[in-house]
Design brief:
With about 375 residues, this protein is of the alpha/beta class. The chain has 15 helices and 12 strands. One of its GO terms (molecular function) is FMN binding.
């Protein structure tokens, strides 16, 4: 029987089904990591290596999974991660995914490299966050901030781990380029580079090399704070020292992430970095985890190790490839059902209980 988004019983089913309907080069762009993909594989392996110590006799007949993130009430501690060029998977792209996020009651992060402009994504009426990369063109950065604010975005997510794009070997081997009907909607001149195919190169990487500013530093965070009144999230931290400094600058949240294994190959998995980052910032800002989340149990593991919530990426694209908005709705509904189930089986009445769970790992032995 052919698996559809609606018939999937886990997010891995969605991935298998999405693979069958996605062109090879697009699949590699979505699924691939950098270098030998050590960090890509490690993200999943590290999550699998965390074991929860469930509690019992706690009356979990009505588990409660809602949370407030950056002032927004969410039905579960999940945010859709920023992912570029979603019209590669479905003609409605980011608009379709944002509509599904609204139905699920969670925020959607508009990628700066979106194939649908933020003004159009806002038609979804979802709670929107806006991703920002640091651009060489400061005037364009100011313009994008103004557009995000005017569109009703509730937070700015500055991705700080991409001074330049990682060497994504699958894309280089494929000479990856965007089709003519997919463009970087916030970059009107990008089509000239992103649709130019050359063997052994990635058109997307060449565009970002020209557009992104590798001189980004802590002083620029102060400038960003002065340029917007929206909450600021720094995405892509692993070192507790960086997290502590981010908290001192007054950011509202940090995202512990190795960019889904797509930047420095060999970088620490986010779930391994999470406890130290949480300790470094204490309660001064929210701490979110990104990278490898594939089940409700993974969400509970992240909460137990100190996360306020998680970002979910590739499973959203899998649902999008299968059935647009409905496919993403099915993916998020499945994640929510798994989360409720995992909370109950772990003896958690709410997310506070999940944060109090003890954990251990298969490699280090008992940790409680």
């Amino acid at each position: 029987m052919t698996t559809t988004a609606a018939s999937a019983v886990c997010l891995a089913d969605l991935a298998t089904a999405a693979r069958s309907v996605t062109p090879d080069d697009v699949w590699d762009f979505v699924e691939g990591g950098s270098g030998a993909e050590l960090s890509l594989v490690a993200n999943r392996a590290a999550l699998d290596d965390v074991y929860l110590v469930p509690r019992v006799l706690r009356d979990v007949s009505r588990p409660h999974a809602s949370r407030v993130l950056l002032g927004t009430s969410t039905t579960m501690p999940v945010v859709v991660a920023p992912m570029a060029y979603q019209r590669l998977l479905h003609p409605d792209g980011e608009l379709a995914a944002a509509r599904a996020a609204r139905s699920a009651g969670i925020p959607f992060t508009v990628p700066m490299l979106s194939s649908v402009a933020v003004e159009e994504v806002a038609r979804s009426e979802a709670d929107l966050w806006f991703q920002l990369y640091w651009l060489r063109d400061r005037a364009m950065t100011v313009d994008l901030l103004a557009r995000a604010e005017a569109a009703g975005c509730r937070a700015i997510v500055l991705t700080v781990d991409v001074p330049l794009m990682g060497r994504r070997l699958r894309d280089l081997r494929n000479g990856f380029t965007l089709p003519r009907d997919v463009v970087a909607a916030h970059f009107p001149d990008a089509a000239a580079t992103t649709q130019l195919q050359r063997a052994g190169t990635s058109a997307v990487a060449e565009h970002t090399r020209d557009a992104f500013d590798p001189s980004l530093s802590w002083s620029d965070i102060d400038w960003l704070r002065s340029a917007t009144e929206l909450p600021i999230v720094l995405k892509g931290l692993l070192a507790p020292q960086d997290a502590a400094r981010a908290a001192r600058t007054g950011v509202d949240a940090v995202v512990v992430s190795n960019h889904g294994g797509r930047q420095l190959d060999g970088a620490l998995p986010g779930i391994r970095a999470l406890p130290a980052v949480r300790d470094a910032v204490d309660d001064s800002c929210d701490v979110l985890l990104d990278g490898g989340i594939r089940s409700g149990v993974d969400v509970v593991k992240a909460l137990a190790l100190g996360a306020s919530g998680v970002l979910v990426g590739r499973p959203v694209l899998h649902g999008l490839a299968l059935d647009g908005t409905r496919g993403v709705e099915d993916a998020l509904a499945l994640l929510r059902a798994e989360l409720d189930h995992a909370l109950a089986l772990a003896g958690c009445r709410d997310l506070g209980d999940a944060a109090g769970l003890a954990t251990t790992t298969g490699t280090r032995g008992p940790g409680w």
